[in-house]
Design brief:
CATH class of the domain at 170-264: Alpha Beta
InterPro entries: GIY-YIG_endonuc_sf
CATH topology of the domain at 170-264: GIY-YIG endonuclease
Strand content: 5-15%
Helix content: 40-55%
Order of helices and strands: HHEEEEEHHHHHHHEEHHEH
Structural class: alpha+beta
Radius of gyration: 23 Å
């Protein structure tokens, strides 16, 4: 990733550490590294187990992106403010190296030098905390503005409740390359959220389908469209698990119908 979205910068330090945040107004958890969303109330399967949205977000981060620490550390000096030497030291400190082991790993220096670097990093941490406190104190809002914000929060809470009580469109979607006609077919219990997440992933270069991502990078956003192929009608008696099972069955049927493989599409045939 060459840059971060506004969503990343709006996240708290703790949310950055865990790699995802809870977007309450949309009723979903969002991966800060690729934009994948996980809807509250939906149960997600993985390796024979079922997870709620919050736990599956953590599973997704670990499975798809590995160590959040390494991801953040790898962003370079422009984003972290750290020199290459400091980044190397933090890498070794994170994995529990002793001062002697760090000296050996870096093939030079002395333990006293390493201790001095540790001290300087701690000082940098303190400075960062003070700076965060200063910035959070810069408010300048009037009493009238604060009252308006309170009313806005109440309004957002009402809209959130209305959102959560509204059934989400579920079904089959395709991402179509308008130049070649190739398609990628998938399913989702929230087609609106899925459109936002997959197009975000493509823009950020993080979609898991490499062939689709490569064509997107080459041809540009204007040559790819997200289209709804089929939808499931909500039923009062149906459970989330039943919907997920139905979505999987629908996907198999549409894969058979559309054959989005090889020259016709980006999907991979199941072995």
């Amino acid at each position: 990733m060459n840059g971060f979205s506004e969503l990343f910068w709006d996240a708290s330090v703790e949310e950055m550490k865990q790699g995802y945040l809870h977007r309450a107004e949309d009723g979903e958890y969002v991966c800060l590294m690729c934009g994948e969303t996980f809807e509250t109330g939906v149960v997600y399967p993985s390796d024979g187990k079922w997870y709620d949205a919050a736990k599956f977000a953590a599973v997704h981060v670990e499975r798809e992106h590995g160590s959040v620490f390494e991801f953040l550390l790898g962003q370079g000096k422009k984003m972290t403010g750290l020199t290459d030497l400091q980044r190397k030291l933090l890498h070794y400190i994170y994995y529990g190296y002793t001062d002697n082991e760090i000296v050996d790993a870096m093939d030079g220096g002395s333990t006293s030098t390493i201790r001095n670097h540790r001290f300087m990093l701690r000082e940098k941490e303190k400075q960062a905390k003070v700076f965060l406190a200063i910035m959070s104190s810069i408010d300048g809002k009037s009493q009238k503005e604060r009252k308006a914000e309170q009313m806005s929060r109440e309004r957002r809470a009402k809209l959130k409740q209305e959102y959560l009580s509204t059934p989400k469109p579920m079904g089959i979607y395709q991402i179509r390359n308008v130049v070649s006609g190739k398609i990628f077919v998938g399913n989702s219990p929230n087609l609106t959220g899925k459109e936002n997440s997959v197009m975000f992933q493509l823009r950020m270069g993080g979609h898991y389908n490499r062939e689709l991502q490569q064509d997107y990078n080459q041809l540009g956003q204007e040559n790819f469209v997200f289209e709804v192929v089929a939808q499931i009608k909500p039923r009062d008696e149906a459970t989330q698990q039943e919907y997920l099972q139905e979505l999987d069955e629908m996907l198999e049927m549409w894969l058979e119908e559309l054959q989005p493989f090889g020259e016709r599409g980006y999907n991979k045939k199941s072995k």
